[in-house]
Inverse folding.
């Protein structure tokens, strides 16, 4: 067996555009500590258009945003105001509670522009769920990168192929990306209890099976297969040690269902800190 599970991400509209959501889905709630995996774009915005995700809350998780093209302007309730650009990794630790917005700056709206990237959430371990919130920016040049047998690899979080990422982690976790020319082979990183593979573009073989662009598969690591590029491909690999059962509702993730109920009440009643520079917010869903 090559894949423990293979799925096609579902299309999810977030307002200005659709995203491909691989996790969570029925039958696949997480891979390691990762409980959310979205791939958006490439999106081509017409002049005057852009991303406008109003302030919304998170608890007991950390988000990772990584762009291939374009820019997202991030504001949060800690006072962070920062443009997220390609190559850098941005880690927002929600902990006991944070709210944030994601928008396109006015300076970019005058002409057409593109946006393309990934956003992932990982659940915090139970002992760290109520940690103080923080926002951490890691410039592109701080992330380890090397070429192995023609494959350019970046380790975004965790360790692999002799590299160790400086990005803060709370539990055994893994996230890497690789650009693979056609015919190139890449061994799996060692030490991740669970691993999943996603081709952003291109197609790869793993064992006896093929994974095409925008398909997502949890890998069977027992046979020691390598990833082989059938065409020029860019892939993302995520995984790590599972954290146990988590409850997810809207933007809230927690090991305790009562904590999610508290977060619902807090958002509805204005108990989350406001995002400086923002006057509107997304209301609590009523279903």
């Amino acid at each position: 067996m090559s894949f423990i599970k293979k799925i096609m991400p579902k299309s999810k509209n977030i307002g200005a555009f659709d995203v491909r959501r691989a996790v969570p889905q029925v039958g696949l709630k997480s891979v390691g500590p990762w409980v959310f995996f979205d791939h958006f774009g490439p999106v081509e915005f017409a002049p005057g258009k852009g991303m406008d995700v109003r302030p919304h809350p998170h608890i007991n998780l950390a988000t990772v945003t990584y762009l291939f093209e374009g820019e997202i302007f991030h504001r949060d309730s800690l006072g962070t105001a920062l443009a997220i650009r390609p190559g850098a990794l941005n880690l927002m630790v929600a902990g006991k509670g944070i709210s944030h917005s994601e928008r396109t700056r006015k300076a970019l709206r005058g002409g057409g522009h593109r946006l393309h990237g990934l956003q992932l959430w990982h659940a915090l371990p139970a002992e760290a769920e109520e940690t103080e919130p923080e926002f951490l920016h890691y410039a592109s040049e701080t992330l380890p990168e090397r070429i192995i047998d023609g494959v350019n690899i970046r380790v975004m979080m965790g360790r692999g192929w002799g590299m160790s990422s400086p990005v803060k982690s709370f539990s055994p976790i893994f996230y890497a990306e690789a650009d693979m020319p056609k015919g190139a082979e890449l061994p799996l990183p060692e030490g991740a209890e669970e691993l999943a593979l996603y081709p952003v573009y291109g197609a790869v073989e793993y064992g006896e099976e093929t994974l095409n662009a925008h398909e997502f598969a949890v890998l069977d690591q027992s046979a020691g297969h390598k990833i082989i590029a059938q065409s020029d491909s860019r892939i993302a690999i995520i995984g790590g040690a599972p954290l146990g059962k988590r409850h997810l509702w809207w933007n809230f993730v927690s090991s305790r269902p009562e904590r999610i109920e508290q977060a619902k009440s807090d958002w509805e009643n204005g108990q989350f800190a406001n995002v400086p520079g923002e006057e509107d917010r997304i209301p609590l869903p009523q279903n």
User: Anything to note?
Assistant: The helical segments are 106-109, 257-268.
